[in-house]
């Protein structure tokens, strides 16, 4: 009994001390896009290992939070998975960390080789419901859309000019892997996921196919060269000149030392 | 020594029970506080609509609420008779060695993590359904996966309830010369009905609260299903899908989903408690 009470007291004491322990040492706060956050976290770990005493704290909350936090100083660096808007560039500076492309994917057995923008819109708004109307077999189309708040959805809506409420989906998914599995398991499905993740799946024999966009093949090479239309930069943004520590982190994150981390997350290192 | 630890037991258990109760109340309070920005703006009515487009300011939860109940009800309707049949078989019909093995299998099934059922559903069941009735991810797929998940709970509790039926009742039935079928269905099952009902309610509660498995197979489209082959989104999946990416009113709207779910679970608990007192 006594031992249990001591255990309880220790636990409470540990809980009380814990928040205080984080305050010491050089610390960087990064907040924003959930697409960039996992990558920033990995880079942060490597940065911490090379700079003892430094702590890199990464929090998600969307690109809008990244912009807002960098703007009002709540974060040292904002994580933003899009190009900055003209009015934002007046106060913020973007440092491109990597590029991300979104590709339309269909089942590998689907004979359709490409879709133009009007066809994509017609399929996603439910006007085209059968692959025959898009040059394919007589098979109902299963439209796979992303859940609201996802940055891939935002990019797709921006490209097609649609509102999410106009889309008539038969399945709504969360992450890329769920999207790839859903399309691989349904010969009539069409979805969109990060190109890196889709390429990786194709290399490992998953029965999906990447469709070209506006005639440009969906490859990481096309994303790197900037020719692929459905792509976006992943940015670290700062307000004015970054602090010395933040500047060191940004330089490290853009160096070849983290190239393997970028590729491990299916993103494309920017050309240098 | 013994006396002192006994005198400690009461305040200690009281304190721990008090903490549990406080945590529950605190959680409800937290849900209410986090949902407040959405509830205060525009009131309750905006949640009564069918459309869920939080980024466009539309927060209808009705379709998801109905889908949640439909999925849980379908799973329970499938699992209850199957579970009862499993229990009757294991308790009365199977040879002892087989019955023990069968119960072990059910216990094992009850311990499999839900994400495993979900993964099986996504890679096996949904493609099968898609070949028959596209898109495959649907109310039916979610109901089937959930039924499989709650089947062991229902079966094991029904088995325990049947095992607790007094021997004298069964002997009496045998003495009256009742057939095996009549003994089981007209004597044993009615005598154990409260325990069986409790197991079904527990299964229903688990079906209502299940997240990952449903998220993977239900299709997650916010709509009123016209048939069991239509994709639906349940309240738990709504939170899991969007919470990581939500800010502001969107986030508060998700907390309203959580609040609604908590109220559904409380309603179920209240219903179960109403069944209980007559038990003794």
Put the structure in a nutshell.
The complex is a heterodimer of chains A (272) and B (280). With 272 residues, chain A is α/β, with parallel strands linked by helices.
Q: What top-tier CATH class of the largest domain in chain A fits best?
A: Alpha Beta
Biggest interface found: A-B, 32 and 36 residues
Give the low-pLDDT segments of chain B: none
The strands making up the biggest β-sheet of chain B line up spatially as 1-2
Rg of chain A, alpha carbons: 22 Å
Second rung of CATH, namely the architecture of chain B:
Orthogonal Bundle
Percentage of helical residues of chain B? over 70%
CATH superfamily of chain B: MetI-like
Proportion in β-strands of chain B: under 5%
| CATH fold-level topology of chain B | MetI-like fold
Rounded to the nearest angstrom, the distance between the terminal CA atoms of chain B is: 37 Å
CATH topology of the largest domain in chain A: D-Maltodextrin-Binding Protein, domain 2
Number of strands of chain A: 9
| CATH top-level class of chain B | Mainly Alpha
Q: Pairing-aware structural class of the strands and helices of chain B?
A: mainly alpha
Set down the secondary structure blueprint.
The complex is a heterodimer of chains A (272) and B (280).
Chain A: H1 2-21, E1 27-32, H2 37-50, E2 55-60, H3 63-72, E3 77-80, E4 92-107, H4 117-124, E5 142-146, H5 151-160, E6 171-173, H6 176-184, E7 189-194, H7 195-203, E8 208-211, H8 220-224, E9 231-239, H9 244-253, H10 259-264
Parallel strand pairs in A: 1-2, 1-3, 5-6, 5-7
Antiparallel strand pairs in A: 3-9, 4-7, 4-8, 4-9
Chain B: H1 2-40, E1 52-53, E2 58-59, H2 62-93, H3 96-111, H4 114-132, H5 139-163, H6 167-175, H7 180-191, H8 193-209, H9 212-217, H10 235-242, H11 248-275
Antiparallel strand pairs in B: 1-2
Helix pairs in contact in B: 1-11, 2-3, 2-5, 2-8, 3-5, 4-5, 5-8, 6-7, 8-11, 10-11
């Amino acid at each position: 009994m006594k031992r249990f009470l001591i255990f309880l007291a220790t636990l409470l004491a540990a809980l009380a001390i814990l928040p205080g322990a984080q305050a010491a040492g050089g610390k960087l706060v990064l907040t924003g896009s959930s697409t960039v956050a996992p990558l920033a976290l990995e880079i942060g770990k490597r940065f911490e290992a090379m700079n003892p005493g430094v702590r890199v704290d990464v929090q998600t909350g969307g690109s809008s939070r990244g912009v807002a936090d960098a703007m009002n100083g709540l974060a040292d660096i904002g994580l933003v998975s899009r190009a900055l808007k003209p009015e934002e560039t007046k106060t913020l500076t973007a440092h491109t960390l990597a590029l991300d492309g979104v590709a339309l994917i269909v089942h590998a057995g689907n004979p359709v080789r490409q879709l133009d923008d009007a066809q994509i819109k017609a399929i996603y708004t439910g006007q085209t419901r059968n692959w025959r109307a898009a040059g394919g077999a007589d098979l109902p189309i299963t439209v796979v859309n992303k859940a609201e708040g996802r940055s891939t959805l935002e990019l797709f809506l921006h490209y097609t000019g649609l509102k999410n409420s106009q889309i008539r989906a038969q399945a709504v998914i969360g992450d890329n892997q769920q999207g790839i599995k859903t399309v691989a398991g349904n010969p009539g499905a069409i979805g969109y996921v990060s190109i890196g993740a889709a390429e990786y799946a194709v290399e490992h024999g998953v029965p999906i196919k990447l469709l070209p966009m506006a005639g440009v093949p969906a490859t990481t090479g096309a994303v790197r060269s900037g020719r692929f239309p459905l792509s976006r930069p992943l940015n670290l943004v700062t307000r004015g000149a970054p602090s010395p520590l933040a500047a060191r982190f940004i330089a490290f994150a853009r160096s070849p030392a983290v190239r393997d981390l970028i590729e491990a997350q299916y993103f494309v290192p920017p050309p240098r | 020594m013994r006396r002192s630890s006994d005198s400690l037991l009461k305040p200690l258990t009281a304190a721990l029970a008090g903490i549990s109760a406080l945590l529950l109340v605190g959680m409800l309070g937290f849900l209410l506080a986090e949902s407040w920005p959405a509830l205060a703006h525009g009131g309750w009515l905006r949640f009564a609509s069918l459309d869920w487009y939080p980024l466009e300011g539309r927060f209808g939860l009705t379709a998801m609420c109905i889908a949640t109940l439909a999925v849980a009800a379908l799973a329970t309707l499938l699992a209850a008779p199957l579970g009862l049949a499993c229990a009757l078989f294991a308790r009365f019909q199977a040879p002892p060695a087989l019955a023990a093995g069968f119960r072990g299998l059910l216990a094992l099934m009850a311990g499999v993590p839900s994400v495993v059922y979900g993964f099986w559903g996504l890679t096996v069941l949904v493609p099968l359904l898609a070949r028959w009735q596209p898109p495959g991810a649907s109310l039916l797929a979610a109901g089937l996966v959930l039924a499989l998940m709650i089947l062991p709970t229902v079966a094991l509790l029904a088995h325990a309830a049947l095992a607790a039926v007094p021997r004298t009742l069964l002997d009496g039935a045998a003495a009256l010369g009742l057939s095996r079928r009549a003994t089981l269905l007209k004597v044993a099952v009615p005598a154990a009905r409260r325990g069986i009902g409790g197991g079904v309610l527990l299964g229903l509660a688990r079906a209502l609260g299940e997240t990952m498995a449903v998220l993977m197979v239900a299709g997650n489209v916010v709509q009123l299903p016209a048939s069991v082959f239509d994709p639906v989104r349940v309240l738990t999946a709504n939170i899991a899908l969007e919470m990581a990416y939500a800010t502001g009113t969107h986030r508060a709207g998700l907390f309203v989903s959580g609040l609604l779910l908590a109220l559904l679970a409380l309603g179920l608990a209240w219903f179960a408690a109403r069944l209980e007192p007559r038990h003794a």
